[in-house]
Amino acid sequence: MPRHQMNVADMQRLKNYYYNKTDIVNKTKVQQSSINNKIGIDYASVVVTTINAYCFANPLTISSRNPDKQEEIKALIDCLDDDNYNQKTMHTVLDSGICGLGYKYVRPATAEEEKRGMFFRTFSEIDPMTTYCVYENSLEKEKVLAVRFYEKEVYNKEFKKITKQTEFDCWTKYHQWHFVKSGRTYYHTTFTSLIDGMPIEFDAYPILYNRIPIIEYERKQDRTSDFEQAIDLINAINALASYRVDLVEQKSDYILLLRDIDIWADGALSRVKEAIKDGILAFKSVTDINAPQPEVKVLDIEVNQSQLQTLQDFLSNKLEEVTHIPNRDSRTSGSDTGIAVEGRNGYRSLENIAGLVTSCALESENEMFDVILAICKLNSNCPFNSLTTKDFTVKSNRNKVENMINSTQAYSTLRNSGMCDEEALRITNLSSDPISTARLNKRGKEEDAAFEIQFAVDQQKALDSIKSKELGGNTTGA
Question: What's the rounded Cα separation, in Å, for the pair 8 and 299?
Fold first, then answer.
């Protein structure tokens, strides 16, 4: 728990940055402190949205690996649709993009939910700051415990007032416990269950499907968020933007330097201020040419906006490189095309990070389906209770449209050289699911071939019929 509290502070800062509550709000200024802009540019949200949209804009798909289980898999997909599976997955991967971790919770359906055709329920609105998992300190890193805690207001009969207490739900593979922290005291509550009509209390609630129902979604293997390593760059960009706006305002809210002008005489200072407000400031020259002449000057700082823009572009480009998102401007560099353009503009870097993000998400999805199928296996009414995780596979389905011409040309070359369809699709990266795509291609070719054969047969029958009629006519004439 103490270690998790350390992570909570980091997660809170990351959430603040995602919602554009950055360190720029603490900016202070000594000179002309009234001009103190605090401009936060919402880069963190842009980074998370870009990566999420690229990886998960198209829903994850379930592909069959067992032709004999097609009906059961369809029933599972229907149940997932009823449970808003795609929406909940997007919610979880958004949390992982912001905090580095996201969570889902799976439970068996209630009797009422089962009447509506539901056999399990999943929940994604689980705050990573109040949830964590514990793993074995071994090579396997097996999950041994999941904890979720929350604050609750209760009426204290002893003090006759509403007090706050922290409640904990803890899961292992075989039991669920419920603990309460009130003040400095911890105690656990019991679960009541009816057995033969009699209420029986248990210290722990048994988990009959022998799985921990909290699934942890790592964004990447190092558990960092999409923009965590770029926070210093975000701070620098915000500081630069705020400074530039300060300079613009200071141009209009200037400071006057009055040299050799007596403003301390009776009423002189107030008259000068009124003259400045009216936009007219006039002083008499001194008749003695050797004496200093009165001078009015605006204190101004010369700013090279071109240099500031160069610095702004440098910081923005570095941020895009660190966060692996493409550059929004069209960069040009001679006559390079194809892969060179992808590398220069950041699409190849985005594809690389997408591979890490989706592989971690798919690993967690497979764990979730393992829990779901273990729950459904105990329900004789479930139409897919015989399914196993080996009967289907979960696939990412992101669009890969960059450099499509080169990819299709390479695919044709590989196919013409005799390479199998599945391997050619995998090498050219044209499909996120080469196995299913190759299977569909094969089925389509078989259907086209069958159609062409049937068309040729029908044509031959028609020709034979015409010839038969012509021969019959010639015989009658003879």
Answer: 48
